[in-house]
């Protein structure tokens, strides 16, 4: 998360989440695997830091202060288990909300004693990642949580989830926004490759034909899929180290491609 690159699609996702929160709607975000849906959600909610604090806490009692300033944060992220039961979904989301609220109180009051009569819900948005895993009863449980808590909810899943949810009119009627998460543009792919190559210690010269040929090969293979870009680059670095090469090339990229299992990313 420290190396997160803000793309145009991330900005659109952030605006989508803000709109759901403002209107208190259920939002539906769907896109192919690896395009950056979960990573965008984690960055928007700063969940990499918050989750660490929550995991070290008992749901009802948070012993230490949060590691970051949480005064501006209001989102939790829940990832259901495979074939999760409605009861478990309810309990896990409730515990996440309790721990988040307690941490935020510690962030607001800092070294002061938290008043005993303070019992507010600071969660304004619940993001449910991997929503494809949910069975019909689990989806109904989410609708019940949404109705009872009056918080915005964002469901993240694969393409086709919007058609599946259409079979649940009580839930689908509460969906106010839908956001198809698209792959990276060619310009963004080039930018991300250059940024991550510098992280891996690979120099990229825009005036060097070999470097541009390698970038073009990565762009063609990955089709703007963020996760696949990272896999190709890491494999290319390994091949360069094994062969003691100092620069990336199309041949290195093609060799990295042969080492990976790449399915349908479209």
- How does the helix and strand content classify structurally? alpha/beta
Beta-strand content bin: 5-15%
**H/E element string?**
HEHHEHEHEHHEHHHH
Largest sheet: 5 strands, parallel
Tell the overall outline.
Answer: globular
CATH class categorisation of the largest domain: Alpha Beta
CATH fold description of the largest domain: Rossmann fold
Summed up, the domain count is 2
The average pLDDT score comes to 86
Low-confidence stretches: none
Helix content: 40-55%
Which descriptors would you attach to this protein?
266 residues, alpha/beta, Rossmann fold, Helicase, Ruva Protein, domain 3, 51% helix, globular
Structural commentary:
This protein has 266 residues and is α/β, with parallel strands linked by helices. It folds into 2 domains: 8-180, P-loop containing nucleotide triphosphate hydrolases (Rossmann fold, 3-Layer(aba) Sandwich); 186-258, Helicase, Ruva Protein, domain 3. It has helices at residues 8-23, 37-45, 47-55, 86-109, 136-149, 161-165, 169-172, 186-199, 209-222, 226-242, 250-258; strands spanning 26-30, 75-78, 125-128, 152-157, 175-180. Strands 2-3-4-1-5 form a 5-stranded parallel sheet, sandwiched between helices. Helix 8 packs across helix 10 (226-242). The longest helix has 24 residues, at 86-109. The two termini are 25 Å apart.
């Amino acid at each position: 998360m420290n190396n997160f690159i803000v793309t145009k699609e991330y900005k659109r996702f952030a605006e989508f989440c803000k709109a759901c929160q403002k209107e208190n709607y259920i939002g539906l975000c769907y896109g192919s695997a690896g395009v950056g849906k979960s990573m965008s959600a984690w960055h928007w909610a700063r969940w990499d830091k918050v989750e660490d604090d929550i995991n070290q806490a008992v749901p009802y009692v948070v012993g230490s202060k949060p590691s970051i300033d949480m005064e501006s944060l209001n989102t939790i992220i829940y990832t259901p288990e495979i074939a999760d039961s409605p009861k478990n979904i309810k309990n896990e989301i409730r515990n996440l909300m309790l721990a988040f609220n307690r941490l935020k109180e510690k962030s607001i009051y800092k070294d002061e004693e938290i008043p005993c009569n303070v019992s507010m819900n600071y969660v304004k948005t619940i993001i449910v990642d991997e929503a494809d895993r949910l069975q019909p009863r689990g989806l109904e449980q989410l609708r019940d949580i949404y109705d009872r808590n009056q918080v915005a909810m964002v469901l993240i899943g694969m393409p086709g989830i919007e058609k599946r949810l259409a079979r649940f009119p009580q839930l689908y009627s509460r969906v106010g926004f839908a956001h198809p998460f698209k792959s990276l543009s060619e310009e963004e792919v080039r930018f991300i490759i250059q940024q991550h190559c510098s992280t891996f210690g690979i120099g990229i010269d825009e005036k060097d034909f070999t470097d541009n040929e390698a970038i073009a090969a990565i762009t063609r293979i990955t089709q703007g899929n963020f996760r696949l870009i990272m896999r190709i680059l890491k494999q290319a670095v390994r091949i360069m180290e094994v062969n003691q090469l100092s620069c990336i090339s199309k041949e290195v990229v093609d060799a990295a491609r042969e080492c990976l299992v790449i399915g349908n990313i479209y």
